[in-house]
């Protein structure tokens, strides 16, 4: 690693850390992994490489440059004094200009005898005191700060840094002008596309497309592919159309308003390369029993629609029953991944239509 390498924390949806590291290596080049925790990786690389990653990332949700990394001897009340001392030792005057506004955003993981508010207060005071010692001034502005100082206490480790992405999460895509009530986070959608093995030029079907996040993410990534976007709700199809037009990919999409069981008769058997979808969970809407019935219909239709070497990727909180149902219908599992979908544990399940070794 080069001498001018810097530490960076890059965050993502919990469960996608390995894919985020792969994206970092492919887009930014050499990245040395120093630590990995749910929803984040700590890497050492050049600042220019991280800038390149953040311009194009599909998986990162935020990032910050790490200016200090220390082990905390205690998680008791005196830990706040130690956090203040460490923060006071950071050369904030090199990063915050005279008169600039700033705010501290704190996060804790683990049990401590202090709160995130305590951490923010201690670090904020240390920043002000350090700048004062350097003959500079700064103002705290909690809503629209010019600089965002990041303070994370992860069990017994303290990381201090400066945000590279601001308060707005990178998962909030510009093209989503219409939000579906059960919308999928774009980083999860992109992960499903990667895990499906989809290649440029292939045809994708999302038979339960909602607001169209999966097809849009796929076509933004694969410039020669096409997608079929279906939902039995006409309102959802309208949302998907509007989002895809905003994204500039509607010209490579076809929109259908059918029940999933009707698709084989309309599209023909063995007509699509990949099926990637986010079926109903039966939690916010409907019931778990109805959701499982929808998955059964999806699986039956997918067996007919997929080409021989096609793959099916779906996400569900009901791993055991969906996995068992897929096996009973002849699908061959090749990958699964746990993720946190908002505050819900879910699994991305990946199946091949053809058993290994079959033609």
From TrEMBL:
GO cellular component: cytoplasm
Domain THUMP: 49-164
Subcellular location: Cytoplasm
Source organism: Fervidicoccus fontis
Main location: cytoplasm
Source taxonomy: Archaea, Thermoproteota, Thermoprotei, Fervidicoccales, Fervidicoccaceae
Protein name: THUMP domain-containing protein
GO biological process: tRNA methylation
PANTHER family xref list: THUMP DOMAIN-CONTAINING (PTHR14911), TRNA (GUANINE(6)-N2)-METHYLTRANSFERASE THUMP3 (PTHR14911:SF13)
Pfam families: THUMP, UPF0020
Alphabetized UniProt keyword annotations: Methyltransferase, RNA-binding, Transferase, tRNA processing
Keyword Zinc-finger: no
Domain of life: Archaea
Claim: Zinc-finger is one of the keywords in the record: no
Gene Ontology MF terms: RNA binding; tRNA (guanine) methyltransferase activity
